[in-house]
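Q: What changes when SN-glycerol-3-phosphate is included in the input?
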Amino acid sequence: MKFFIDTANIDEITEAGSLGILDGVTTNPSLMAKEGISGEENIIKHYETICNIVDGHVSAEVIATDMDGMIDEGLKLASIHSQIVVKVPATANGIKAINHLSHKGIKTNCTLVFSTGQAILAAKAGATYVSPFIGRIDDMNYNGMDLIDQMVQVYHNYEFETQILAASIRNTRHIIECAEAGVDVVTSPLKPLKGLLKHPLTDIGLEKFLADHKKAQQ
Ligand code: G3P
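A: The predicted holo structure follows.
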């Protein structure tokens, strides 16, 4: 199971990287805007910085919505660094662009996926990753994990090579349930990722070990 961090924040990427368990990064236009990154030159520089911090794939999303625009932008993004994966939305033009880019050997991540039908087309188009958005489905009072379970089953049935990259993670439980379902990658904000380590019995146990050790030294 691979862990990606879902942020464009350099401090958070560095902190997650320091744990030694980080396999990649995903960004999107909202996350880039949150960091105040604008203008082609700054965007390119930011992606370069991220690629130099993390030894793994870094998803960079296209802004164009027409097929030719997505392809042009995808080629430019892919030329920034060999670690870049071009993120393309699950629209008809997006599927065509993924097909084109993957035939050129460019890695792609089909994003904004909310149905197994979209996930099947992403795999057929040759996407490297497919990103189902669990949290946003939960936000609509449906169960995002139902989509994950169905996708895992269908991808297994046909031995699709596209990797399931669970996105829109809201909490630590999502990460565990994704692991249970057998997804290939989870991309999470820093907080749920760090939440994996939290257990009150670990804190209580450590406190007692240290207190006992101190007593023995007196
Ligand atoms: O990067 C895409 C996805 O993870 C977005 O998450 O929290 O905006 O639904 P969220």
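Observations recorded in class: The beta strands are 2-6, 24-26, 57-61, 84-89, 108-113, 129-132, 163-166, 185-188.
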